[in-house]
Amino acid sequence: MQELNIFLVTVGGLTLVLSLIAGLMQNKAYLPSEPMAAVALGILIGPAGMGFARLTTWGAPLPIIEQAARLTVGLAVMAAALRLPRGYFQNHARSMSVVLLPGMIGMWLVSSGLVYVLLSVPFTVAFLIGAIITPTDPVLAGTIVMGHTAQRSIPAPIRNLLTGESGANDGLAYPFVFLPILLFEHVPERAFLNWIVETLLWEVGAAVVIGAAAGALAGWIEQVSHEYHYLEESSLLSVTVALTFTVLGGVKLVGSNGILAAFAAGLLFNRLSNAGDEADEQKVQETVLRLFTFPIFVIFGIVLPVDQWIALGWAGVVLPAGVLLVRRLPMVGVFRTSVPAISDDYDALFAGWFGPIGIAALFYATVAHRIIGEEIIWSAATLVVTSSILVHGVTATLFTKLYGRIVDPNRIQTPDDDRQSSLDEH
């Protein structure tokens, strides 16, 4: 109980302070990002620091992290869906298809190749770790594309591109992660059959259908209730949070992919609900997400496997550096001509650099570790996640402001920008 009170005081105090100075932290390049501050607090109060908090007193650490990460990512992808313009995926079908199919496959292969060469692990383990660190994290991406600094410096098409990608590819990373897991558990013929039937058709396809149906139903009911004045303001502001938890839990109970379903539900709810109500719900969703984000980063700081990182030797330095430099930038360079939102080299560099790896990777790492039991999965994934939190946190404000000075001012916050980029696709 004493450790719980310490955790409440530290996390609550951190959330209070960072919330009061959020604008200052987003505007000053020399200040750490909020995720960096939360991880640092976890290190400070954890076994590596003052030793006030040890997650082992609450139970096995990884199951706690898995469930906390699942809830946080679910809230984050719903927030991303609500943040997008209505009909974004329909209007940008070509861009999203390129980014989410060959783009993700490219990042997966590059990351897996680096892991295989540098860590000298079997192919299957390398492909599993590569899949875990493939998706762009919606929590960290949200800290980059949100706030006054982002709105003043990043053109709307780039913000929406990063938001849409980070929201969708967390759920779509599921089949990439589970293909090597199934190869661990079964002979190749059985593994590929299970992957097609169970993973692709049910855990991906059915998740999209179920989530979209739930979001559409909730959006339609909300619109009707708005027209007949059945909604109270207090109940209205809990709709999307309740929808997130309902979809996450319900879809998991039927054995499908709750994260992908939550994003699909958010897209359909966004499309069908009353515009004014949806704007209020988005603010509440972002607020609740914020309350979940700080604790998971603090918990992560408490359990950092520093000894395992040290055991990796020089590969522990080269691997995260290689992943951050070549996992995403070349992919954006190759496919930029198929993404109208990326109109010049500066757009490509910005969008290519800011593909952070975070809570979604932690979620998949805990799942893979639970099923496979290989320690290298956890140590390699957490090393890359920590490096991304540090490097992208340090560069976020600096690069965003620099990008804002270089980019054409007429593109920033121009309402027709996003509409024009969608027209360019047709």
Task: Give a quick precis of the structure.
The chain is an all-alpha fold and 426 residues long.
Written overview of the protein:
Residues 17-399 form the Cation/H+ exchanger transmembrane domain. The chain crosses the membrane at residues 6-25, 37-55, 67-84, 105-133, 200-221, 241-268, 288-304, 310-326, 346-364, 376-399. It comes from Halocatena pleomorpha. With 426 residues, this protein is an all-alpha fold. The protein has one domain (61-423): Na+/H+ antiporter like fold, CATH 1.20.1530.20. It is built from 23 helices and no strands. It has helices at residues 2-20, 22-27, 34-45, 61-83, 88-91, 93-100, 102-119, 123-132, 138-145, 148-153, 156-185, 188-227, 233-236, 239-253, 258-272, 275-302, 306-311, 315-326, 329-335, 345-353, 359-372, 375-406, 415-423.
